[in-house]
Specification:
- With 380 residues, the protein is an alpha/beta fold.
- It has 2 domains: 3-26 and 277-345 and 369-374, Aspartate Aminotransferase, domain 1 (Alpha-Beta Complex); 31-275, 3-Layer(aba) Sandwich (Aspartate Aminotransferase, domain 2).
- It has 12 helices and 16 strands.
- The protein has helices spanning 3-12, 31-41, 49-62, 73-83, 100-108, 127-137, 169-179, 230-240, 264-274, 277-295, 323-335, 362-370, and strands at 66-70, 91-94, 112-115, 138-141, 144-147, 154-158, 182-186, 194-195, 198-199, 206-210, 223-227, 301-302, 309-310, 316-319, 341-342, 371-374.
- It is globular and about 65 Å long.
- The two termini are 30 Å apart.
- The structure holds pyridoxal-5'-phosphate (PLP).
């Protein structure tokens, strides 16, 4: 039934028989040279020139004033929330349609996720739905936002740019300002995605990128914090390095810190990958355009970037009619060696988040039943 799609994907990836993964990394630049340099100089660990260079390259590309590397995106999110002031027993608004890391990071702070719906045109947090919920559930007291039912403080809001598609940031920023809530962007999937010409992850007080093996660029494992506030960035750096106060020999630590700093060897990979970022994003957008052209006269909807946005199309999305058709599509494509995958189960269905507060989630539920990711690797 889906033979034409399978044939199209195989010809697009120039792969007549072998398995086609969802997203594979490509190393065609200076990766080996930089890794060898780390080994030859013995600078493989948390000190070395690639760490600083990688931060500068990402800051330059995204337009953030400062970027701070972390061991992975999940602990970058944890730190981002701490830096936004999220504390024990606070509430944090986020979308249930996300990868587990978003909700886990909120839990690491001892805070409670509150799940709000996504928009149909972005698959990300809906400002309208959040506004509606806040208007009945929240009140402003002592310069902070509080949940009228639980009496807890609502400290932050974490939208996620699903599969690289930017959420409605102008509306979210306005809402957060009105309600005294900090905006923390989970931009783990959206390196190379721009909202009205500005890079995702640079709109709130802090944004988070991931460089896991399946992301747009990879450092093996890795993450990055993006800041416009240099003081906050300096504090982030301090926290990633066990909050050690610089001294020639004494071990002085002035708060509880973390060992979240990315090693030089991973940053070396990151520098080589960042040298190719424009090529990578252009290639991914070209692939998406091919999918768009292919699905034009098909009875299936290919998900396109939101208005006024330029998406990295990290993972391409096709929307099936219902769960049954989705499962049929997943079976047929995976049986033919073309990897496809459904979207995540909603966070509120998982045992550890079942009891969390939530608003109306009808759009998230609609996507959960219908979304399938198509092979999205860079073709070189
Ligand atoms: C990949 C990802 C992260 C971070 O994951 P790490 O594997 O820890 O780098 C966070 N949030 C979302 C939505 C992601 O897709």
């Amino acid at each position: 039934m889906y033979n034409d799609i399978i044939a199209f994907i195989r010809s697009t990836f120039n792969e007549p028989k072998a398995f086609i993964p969802l997203h594979a990394p490509v190393f065609t630049g200076n990766e080996k040279a930089y890794l060898n340099e780390c080994i030859d100089t013995t600078f493989v660990s948390s000190v070395g020139k690639f760490v600083d260079r990688f931060e500068e390259m990402v800051a330059g590309y995204t337009g953030a004033r400062k970027a701070v590397v972390c061991v992975n995106g999940t602990n970058a999110l944890h730190l981002a929330l701490l830096l936004a002031g999220v504390a024990y027993n606070d509430e944090v608004i986020t979308q249930p349609l996300t990868f587990i890391a978003t909700a886990n990071a909120i839990s690491y702070c001892g805070a409670h996720p509150v799940f709000m719906d996504v928009d149909k045109d972005t698959m990300g947090l809906s400002p309208a739905k959040v506004r509606e919920w806040l208007s009945t559930h929240a009140e402003i007291r002592n310069g902070g936002c509080f949940n009228k039912t639980t009496r807890r403080r609502i400290k932050a809001c974490v939208p996620m740019h699903t599969f690289g598609h930017p959420v409605h940031l102008d509306e979210l920023m306005l809402l957060c300002r009105e309600y005294h809530i900090e905006l923390v962007e989970d931009a783990a999937e959206s390196l190379g995605s721009f909202y009205k010409g500005k890079h995702t992850g640079t709109f709130g007080c802090v944004g988070v990128l991931s460089f896991n093996g399946n992301k747009t660029i990879t450092t093996g494992g890795g993450g990055m914090l993006l800041f416009n506030d240099e003081k906050l960035a300096a504090h982030a750096k301090h926290l990633t390095t066990q909050a050690k106060v610089p001294h020639r020999w004494e071990f002085v630590h002035d708060e509880i810190g973390y060992n979240y700093r990315m090693p030089n060897i991973n940053a070396a990979l990151g520098c080589a990958q960042m040298e190719k970022i424009n090529e990578f994003v252009a290639d991914k957008r070209d692939l998406a355009q091919r999918y768009i052209d292919f699905f034009k006269d098909k009875d299936m909807d290919f998900f396109v970037e939101p208005k006024e946005c330029s998406s990295n199309y990290w993972l391409n999305v096709v929307i099936l009619k219902n769960r049954e058709e989705r499962d049929h599509f997943l079976t047929e494509t995976n049986d033919s060696g073309v990897m496809t995958r459904p979207i995540w189960q909603l966070m509120n269905r998982l045992p550890m988040f079942k009891a969390c507060q939530r608003g109306d989630l009808s759009n998230a539920e609609w996507f959960e039943e219908r979304v399938v990711n198509l092979p999205s690797s860079i073709r070189l």
